[in-house]
Amino acid sequence: MNSNTTIRNDWSIQEIENIYHQPLLELIYQAATVHRQWHKASEVQVCTLLSVKTGGCPEDCSYCGQAARYHTGITVKALMSKDDVVAIAQRAKDSGSSRFCMAAAWREVRDNRDFENILEMVQGVNEIGLEVCCTLGMITETQAARLQEAGLYAYNHNLDTSKDYYQEIINTRTYDDRLSTLNNVRKAGISVCSGGIIGLGETHADRINMLHTLSTLAQHPESVPVNALARVKGTPLADLPKVDSWEMVRMIATARILMPKSMVRLSAGRAEMTTEEQSWCFMAGANSIFTSESEELLVTPNPRLDDDRKMFELLGLKPMQKEKITNTIPSL
Ligand code: SF4
């Protein structure tokens, strides 16, 4: 792919505001142009997300159905076995996924038997030729290095929102804790997956500030998930209004322009979007979606695999193939 745009890490808030607040069609056109300079627009990476340990989390993230303190009625499940996880990963690969993300509802990784099991899962999924990603909460530099040695390709740790709005959403850890985990991941040579959620009650300025933090990191995250709040009954944010899809489009387009080479992932919220609404997200530069056998994204609904297949066919999209998966970081 050729690139007429350069990768910049010195975006100002004002520049981002100017991009974000453009008339929508101008913004989409600019993002679609950048997208085509850096990526094959007909290819969308299909990632499978599996909750390997569900619920019972001690954190207080206000949007999350897995926080133990909210009465959401989800079934708490202990860490899955390596064999079960690898079998699901194989089926995910067979149905077109090239990335497999394992999520555990933990505050942080502890150096115990569960972590050893996770390392074995990473190794097993890596061996079947998938990009392996984990999202396990906060990790230290040493833990990140061990995950890298086991074959971890990427680590997800979202910023969620802006630094200013963060305390309205989470109190059990700080924004700097999050940045520190991202730093540990980067130092270990693992590719970084970090994005956020819209619809938490934040302002446009908060969204712009979060994008500013991500796009001015010394190296852009290779992967930027953009999520719409999935309103889970029993959580403090359950009664917030549904996110307007055009807000997702605006966010995705701005992320695409600021971080041209990154994978921009249309993540939570698809279950409440029509095919037409998702199409606009692809046009605005999204080039990845999440699927799961259970048709749930962790504990919230996700479209059926079959509906995604039909959507790809209708739009002429192909699942992105990874020629050779290694756990080295793609350079920006
Ligand atoms: S988002 Fe993660 S850390 Fe926060 S409560 Fe949910 S599982 Fe725990």
Overview of the molecule:
This protein has helices at residues 13-20, 24-38, 82-94, 113-127, 141-150, 163-169, 175-187, 204-215, 245-258, 275-283, 305-315, and strands at residues 43-53, 99-104, 131-135, 154-156, 191-193, 196-198, 223-228, 263-266, 288-291, 296-297, 300-301, 318-319. With 332 residues, it is an alpha/beta fold. It has a single domain (41-310), classed as Aldolase class I (TIM Barrel), CATH 3.20.20. Helix 1 packs across helix 8 and helix 2 crosses helix 9 (245-258). The chain starts with 12 loop residues before the first helix and ends in a 13-residue tail after the last strand. The model is unreliable at 324-332 (pLDDT under 50). It binds iron/sulfur cluster. Iron/sulfur cluster (SF4) is lined by residues 57, 59, 61, 64, 66-67, 105, 137.
Which helices and strands occur, and which strands form pairs?
Elements: H1 13-20, H2 24-38, E1 43-53, H3 82-94, E2 99-104, H4 113-127, E3 131-135, H5 141-150, E4 154-156, H6 163-169, H7 175-187, E5 191-193, E6 196-198, H8 204-215, E7 223-228, H9 245-258, E8 263-266, H10 275-283, E9 288-291, E10 296-297, E11 300-301, H11 305-315, E12 318-319
Parallel strand pairs: 1-2, 1-9, 1-12, 2-3, 3-4, 4-5, 6-7, 7-8, 8-9
Antiparallel strand pairs: 10-11
The protein binds iron/sulfur cluster (SF4).
Iron/sulfur cluster is lined by residues 57, 59, 61, 64, 66-67, 105, 137.
